[in-house]
Amino acid sequence: MSVQAYITRQIPEEGMSILKKKLNVSSWCSENVMPREDLLKHVKGMNGILCTISDNMDKEVLDAAGPQLKVISTLSVGTGHIDVSECKKRGIEVLNTPDVASDSAAEFTVTLVLLVARRLLEGMDAVKNGEWGLWKPMWICGFEMGGRTLGIHGLGRVGFGIARRLKPFNIERIIYHDLYHKEYASSVGATLVDLPTLLAESDMLCICCAPTPQTIKSFNKEAFAKMKEGSILINTSRGVIVDHNDLDAALKAGRPMAAGLDVTDPEPLPIDHPLMKNPKCIITPHQGTSTWATRINMAKAAASNLYISLLEEDN
Ligand SMILES: O=C(O)[C@H](O)CO
To answer: Does the active-site annotation cover 81?
Structure first.
């Protein structure tokens, strides 16, 4: 039997070549998201689909594909774009790429922490806008990591990677809040705390937990009011965890002092959203895992997941 797979995006060749070995593969030949009507048309009759986080793999797509669909492999850690419970009901396997992106995501989060703490964007803007005069002792002063408390919301692979990387910056204390992962805490000397303590005691608070009913919009007006004075908030997980209107108001009120977001809700954040103009907020376009090495490894992992799963099915 010829096993059919559809790839919804142009991905690195290292991934494609795995798929081309034994599968009958077709793909959307662009890096841009597929128009919905094309997605619905092209998945018809496929045994496997390789998708990305910007393809909404809902019931309509599963129906359009048909009952022979056995696997959805996503080139991502997150699976929020896939109707996983519907897939389960239909016996469709959902596979992601959890291990290969953690280092680049952690490294990027550390970059944002330093960038926000040292007010880099304000400095760069001042240079470009001609506001750079002769040196002034108290101009654009930020804060150093030494002696500070790092708070991690979600000490999984990415949270652990952040803690491990920032620890040598003479961090005084690492605290974390996580209902599931406890396995990494001892190797970075992190102390488990409840959410109110995490909010009240973190100087740099990094959100790297998964979006769940408990965490979605949990960073809201009430949470911001509990944050430590002078603290910064970084979100590289998923935008839905933070209420962006509340964050804009909280930044204007001074608590947190500044924020760095690599993820927003929605993505992209509308250009006229007040956070876009808030000088206390740095927003990057979901580029936490965007390195060549990680992208190639993600493509290889997603392709192998699809390939192995479909060939097992076929034998
Ligand atoms: O889920 C993921 O893998 C990231 O958000 C995109 O790389």
So the answer is: no
Please indicate, yes or no, if residue 231 is contained in any of the structural domains: yes
**Cα separation values, 1 from 24, 92, 315, Å:** 10, 19, 10
Whether the bond into 266 is cis, omega within 30 of 0: yes
What distance in angstroms lies between residue 78's CA and the mean position of ligand 1's atoms?
A: 6
One domain for residues 60 and 35: yes
Q: 163 CB under 6 A from ligand 1?
A: no
Q: Are 313 and 285 in contact (CB under 8 A)?
A: no
List the catalytic residue out of 153, 177, 244, 286.
Answer: 286
ipTM of the complex: 0.95
- Of all atoms in ligand 1, which is nearest to the CA of residue 78? 1
Is residue 136's pLDDT more than 80?
Answer: yes
The average pLDDT across 19-27 equals 92
Distances (CA, A) of 183 to 46, 63, 207: 39, 40, 18
* Global pTM value: 0.95
Q: Are residues 158 and 272 in the same domain?
A: yes
Q: Does the pLDDT of residue 1 top 70, yes or no?
A: no
